[in-house]
Amino acid sequence: MASLKGVNIIRGKLGASVNTNSDGICGLLATGVATSELELLEAVELHSTDDLEALGITEDYDKENHVCVYRHVSEFFRIAGDGATLHLMLYSGSPVDIFDEGGAARQLIAAAKGEIRILALANTPGENDEPIVLNTLIQKAQNFYDWTFETFRPCQVVLEYNGFAANTAVEAQDLKEIVIGSSTLEAFKVSVCIGQDYQYADQFTDSRRTMADVGTMLGSIAAKAVNGNIGEVATGNLTNATKGIWIEAGLSNHKKISQWDSQLETLDEKGYIFAVSYSGFAGFYWNNDYTCTPVIKDKDGYFNEYTISYGRVIDKCVRGLRTALLPYVKSSQPVDPKTGKLPPALCTNFEAIADNAVFVPMQAAGEITSGKTTIDPNSNLLITPRVLNVSFVVVPTGCIDEIKGTINLKTNL
To answer: How open is the CA angle 309-310-314, to the nearest 5 degrees?
Structure first.
């Protein structure tokens, strides 16, 4: 008998969610105390503050243990949104060895199967902890990035500088000119946060009073496209007046930015990241997305990753290109019978594979201006070592740091 329903539509079954922003997967190493649900140095994946509270970490947990774990995680999700991915690991004591071989940072990368793109270190010193040596920690963080790159899991690092110690901006270490031994450190994958929600920090008398809101900054990075600057004014307001969050911005020496108004440009020039306000615009905004390196440009026009956004673009390209080309390792390929070199058609094919897998979609998404793969036709595929030599060039999108103009009164146009 024929059905009398005419058109019969049933509800489909849902598979695994594909609504994930892999570019914004983050990690957080935070000073904390174990709970019955979460041990120290145990990695856990979170997608909301509800997930965190289920582990026994709440605002009361922070207050009782004199830490800022709930604060950092809740700020991350306030900015990045529920559904974002955050891998959390608690640690105790000094973070001096945290980036070393066998340290917590490498453990978290391994536990997250290399998916973490940005890793933040939240450091809330105990009463008897020695102050961190910032230059040493920055160098170790850069060495850690080098390890993640060499193991095909590139990961930017953001450091909380709890207790920014300089009395004036002139005294502050220039993060773009850190001298280690006889050379300038190029920590082009490491950034330092000294911005704090002043009213939040003002309620404490311990080291939380000089905290930096690295969780807020981490959420700001996660919420942006890889080429996005966290300081973008149109989308980067940190203030939530209704909830009383970021009503007044400060530095991690627990001074209001209004008290350092005449010195903020010097801090900015030295590469620190903190929140600022703009006349005629409500709220507070990150000043920029610097990394701890001088700006370097060579005679051929290549330049280094002196911002977080440039670094994220390069890391996304590296991950994508490796994924696109890895299936062809150990594959058999024809060579020119007369020269033994690569035929032009093969070079063109491999260039198209890489371009179409990475550069074309990134350009279409507005993440880069352009990108190009070039295969070396003289690559030797016959005699060991048989290596296909490839080069890649990426032109990133630009960024407006400042707008300068001239205005005059005139009798007519």
So the answer is: 115
How much helix, strand and coil, in percent to the nearest 5, is found in the chain? 30, 20, 50
List of residues 6+ apart from 69 with CB closer than 8 A: 30, 31, 32, 52, 57, 61, 62, 88, 90, 122
Looking at residue 292, the DSSP 8-state letter turns out to be: B
Q: What type of residue is 366?
A: G
CATH number of the domain residue 133 falls in: 3.40.50
Cα separation, 398 vs 226, whole angstroms: 13
Contact by Cβ (8 Å): 157, 119? yes
What is the Cα–Cα distance from 177 to 183, expressed in whole angstroms? 9
Q: How far apart are CA 133 and CA 135, in angstroms?
A: 6
Which tokens sit at 126?
A: 């105990």
Token pair belonging to 146 = 């080098």
Mean pLDDT of 206-215: 98
Please give the helix or strand (H or E) that residue 138 lies within, else none: helix 134-150
Is 80 exceeded by the pLDDT of residue 51?
A: yes
pLDDT surpasses 60 at 12 = no
C-alpha atoms less than 13 angstroms from C-alpha of 311 in its C-beta half-sphere: 28
Same domain, 266 and 363: no
Residue type, 315: D
What is the residue range of 382's domain? 327-396
273 located within any domain = yes
The answer to whether 289 and 156 have CB atoms below 8 angstroms apart is no
DSSP-assigned states of every residue in 387-406: ---EEEEEEE----S-----
Q: Are residues 125 and 175 in the same domain?
A: yes
Which of 16-20, 35-39, 65-69, 108-112 has the weakest average pLDDT?
16-20
> Looking at the predicted structure, is the pLDDT value of residue 234 above 50?
yes
Nearest to 260 by CA among 362, 164, 401, 325: 164
User: What per-residue confidence (pLDDT) applies to 2?
Assistant: 45
Q: Summarize pLDDT for 291-312 with one digit per residue, the tens.
A: 999 999 998 889 999 999 999 9
Q: Give CA–CA dist 238/219, Å, rounded.
A: 10
Does residue 73 contact residue 28 with C-beta atoms inside 8 Å?
yes
- Residue 14 is which amino acid? L
- What Rg value do the Cα atoms of the chain yield, rounded? 24
Q: What is the pTM of this model?
A: 0.92
Choosing from 232, 257, 286, the residue where a domain stops is: 286
Phi, psi of 96 (to 5 degrees): -60, -35
Helix (H) or strand (E) holding 105: helix 104-111
